[in-house]
Amino acid sequence: MDAAHAPVDQRPVSIDGLLALARPDMAGVDGLIRDRMQSSVPVIPALAEHLIGGSAKRLRPLLTLAAARLAGGQEDGCLKLAAAVEFIHTATLLHDDVVDSSELRRGKVAAHLIWGAPASVLVGDFLFARAFELMVEAGSLQALEILARASRVIAEGEVLQLTRAHDLDLAQETYLEIIGAKTAELFAAAAEAGAVSAGASAARCLALRTYGQNLGLAFQLVDDALDYSGASDTLGKNPGDDFREGKVTLPLLLTIARTGPAEKAFWERTLERHDQTEADFERARALVVETGSGAATLALARDYAEGAKRALGEFAGERVWRPALEDLVDFAVARQA
Questions:
Q1: Domain containing 134 — which CATH number?
Q2: Three-class SS of residue 108?
């Protein structure tokens, strides 16, 4: 069996252990989230609850807490940082759904279809403001710098993706730059901020940032592959949304390269000119499967997953949180099943 098809781990994939370890801390984070999304303007908590209430595992704030505890943190400052991370993430989702005209988010009707695009964008802005209030209250200038930088990098990634939409000549390196900014940066910052809150050494902070970066890349690659093979209950959105929105993700980039001139007119019509019929997604999905492009995307995700696990070598002697964070890596890539 070659490395591209080897499983990441033979153990049953579950993050129940991580969730159990973090349960007391996550209860505190949930309380902060519920408290800080309140406002005297009724539409703000209603719209925020619609999206935040649909987040079952809260992976990014969970990562902040786990990183802090793995690094030896005992104080509760990481709880405010974790809540800030969730607000940043939720704000970006609200903005993304407006930009992409998405219909579903976390299995629910997208907020902008209920309250309208202006309200969704402005509530996203409110949540960003709440995030920065929490960061200031946490009392770590370094953590504030990390999460502020992440907010800027995410916005840059969104703009880069927007300017390269429908680009059939998008280089794989540019695609990875986009998802590194849009998705992986917040995973990386969440973990690094947790380590910083624990007073960890520079080496340990870097190790956890590297873990988060690789985890985020693996997570997004699996999401992109699932868009051509998953179901709505797995994705929290409609399969084929990326294709219908003209997003040229890695499965599609590989497929375009592997089909060559024979399908050039099809890709130009559906992606460049955005002229699609109901049957076009099924044809694109079939080509992704036939060319092995979905499998290749998942293989790359597994490579990044292994990189995330290697980064935890800085914590080789830890026997509680480190295995739980390794389980999180396995969970991220096992969603292909």
A1: 1.10.600.10
A2: strand
Residue 337, in any domain of the structure: no
Q: Is 76 left (phi over 0), alpha (psi -120 to 50) or beta?
A: alpha
Give which of 75, 77, 93, 89 is closest to 130, Cα–Cα: 89
CA pair distance 322, 193, nearest whole angstrom:
17
Question: Are the C-beta atoms of 157 and 195 separated by less than 8 Å?
Answer: no
The C-alpha atoms of residue 180 and residue 220 are separated, in whole angstroms, by 9
pLDDT tens, residue by residue, 275-327? 999 899 999 999 999 999 999 999 999 999 999 999 999 999 899 999 999 99
User: Which positions ≥6 away from 81 have C-beta within 8 Å?
Assistant: 64, 68, 134, 135, 138, 140, 143, 147, 193, 194, 197
Helix/strand/coil for 286:
helix
Interatomic CA distance for residues 309 and 311, integer angstroms: 5
Domain-embedded: residue 9: no
Q: What is the pLDDT of residues 181-221, one digit of tens each?
A: 999 999 999 999 999 999 999 999 999 999 999 999 999 99
- Residue pair 22/62 in contact (Cβ under 8 Å)? The answer is yes
- For residue 194, the enclosing domain spans 15-332
Which of 284, 234, 277 minimizes the C-alpha distance to 254?
284
| % helix, strand, coil for the chain, step of 5 | 75, 0, 25
**Pairwise CA distance, residues 337 & 9, whole Å:** 14
Task: Give the global pTM.
Answer: 0.92
Q: Are 157 and 30 in contact (CB under 8 A)?
A: no
- Tokens 């992704």, residue? 288
Measure the CA–CA gap between 213 and 250, rounded to whole angstroms. Answer: 18
Does residue 44 sit within a domain?
yes
Count how many domains the chain has.
Answer: 1
Rounded distance between C-alpha atoms, residue 278 and residue 284, angstroms: 11
Domain contains 61: yes
